[in-house]
Amino acid sequence: MNKLDKESVIGISALLVHAANIDEIYSDHEKDLIKDFIKSYLNNEDTNKILKKAEEIENNSNQLLNYTNIIKQNSIDIKKDIIEHLWKVIISDNSVDQYESNLMRRICGLIYFPDKECAEIKLKLINSK
User: Fold this and answer.
1) Is the dihedral of CA 25, 35, 110, 87 positive or negative?
2) At 8, which helix (H) or strand (E)?
3) Is residue 1 part of a domain?
């Protein structure tokens, strides 16, 4: 899998923070899942520092979906990995509300990721819990 640069990882992490926050419960478990994402691309970086930066971006940005442009330019493997991490964060509380589903639909549309494949990833993760 090709790598993402630090700026991209921070931007995508902000998107993950947004997905975690959408149901207004931002748990430690969700933070750990986001740190796992960060570690998978930047294993020598301070994940807490990067998470803090991502949280600041998410706090100050109603332009969050701009980060989908970063994702759009990457390979299908990286897109798949990001979609998988987004779903992990969303389903970590064992429920998916309409806002979370809507966010995923919008992100998939913006990065040209097939809905069918997005649904398959979600099901796979739910069934593996």
Assistant:
1) negative
2) helix 6-21
3) no
Whether residue 25 is contained in a domain is answered as yes
- Residue at 72 is within a domain: yes
The pLDDT tens digits for 50-102 are: 999 999 999 987 776 778 888 998 999 999 999 999 999 999 988 899 999 99
In a domain, 109, yes or no: yes
By residue range, what is the domain housing residue 110?
Answer: 6-127
Q: Please, which pLDDT band fits residue 43 given cuts at 50, 70 and 90? A: confident
The pLDDT value recorded for residue 2 is 57
pTM: 0.92
Domain count, the chain: 1
CATH assignment of the domain containing 17? 1.10.3680
- Between the CA atoms of 81, 87, 93 and 95, what dihedral angle is there, to the nearest 10 degrees? -160
